[in-house]
Design a protein that fits this description.
It comes from Parendozoicomonas haliclonae. The protein is an alpha+beta fold. About 25% of the residues lie in helices and about 25% in strands. It has one domain. It is built from five helices and eight strands, in the order αααβαββββββαβ. Helix 2 packs antiparallel against helix 3.
């Protein structure tokens, strides 16, 4: 009997791109019955930890929380659930050439990647594949138009279930600027968490 993978989910608020992307990553790597309930609980326990200047909690997720959750995930094993993770930041992360991200994707893994999407607004997407020119991801924020940045960033409205709904030219995405949309930004702002299923020994 063929088991269908769980379709990717979209955000239900303006701030939950990280927990939703974590859950989408697990749905991408595992069948539904292989994901322990405790893992879902831990995702929401660690995420949405930011505090605004007005003292409001939950308006996003910090890089520290992502790194801590990644560390917990790779130490937790139950049944067939077993993942390896690697947190990359600052000058340790680039998509300009072959590196850890491409290696992870080619092995069937995925990654949470932080992008600058608007003025002082940062957002996480789920990396799925790359080719010579384009980076492909699932954006948990549903968008209304196909062309986001003409010739550089495109929203794929025809995406189904676990297909990419966003593609960005790699050269554009690797721009070291916090002003352009859908870029990794300056080196100090870059964050990525690689996630892949650990092979059974």
């Amino acid at each position: 009997m063929r088991v269908l993978k769980t379709p990717f989910s979209y955000q239900v608020s303006a701030y939950d791109c990280v927990p939703i992307s974590f859950i989408n990553a697990l749905a991408y790597l595992f069948e539904r019955d292989d994901i322990p309930p405790l893992v879902i609980q831990k995702i929401y326990l660690y995420c949405l930890d930011t505090v605004t200047s007005q003292g409001n909690l939950g308006h996003g997720t910090t890089g520290l929380a992502i790194a801590l959750l990644g560390n917990w995930l790779q130490k937790y094993q139950e049944g067939s659930f077993d993942v390896s993770t690697a947190y990359l930041d600052k000058d340790n992360f680039s998509i300009a050439a072959k590196g850890p991200l491409l290696d992870c994707l080619e092995r069937g893994g995925t990654a949470l990647i932080r992008l600058h999407t608007d003025k002082k607004l940062w957002h996480y997407v789920l990396a799925l594949k790359m080719d010579e020119d384009w980076f492909y991801a699932f954006d948990p924020c549903r968008r209304g138009r196909k062309s986001i940045v003409k010739g550089q960033v495109e929203y794929i409205t025809s995406a189904r279930e676990q297909e990419p709904n966003l593609r960005i030219r790699r050269e554009w995405m690797d721009t070291q600027s916090n002003r352009k949309r859908f870029c990794l930004g300056t080196l100090r702002e870059r964050e990525c968490l690689l996630i892949e299923r650990r092979p059974r020994t």
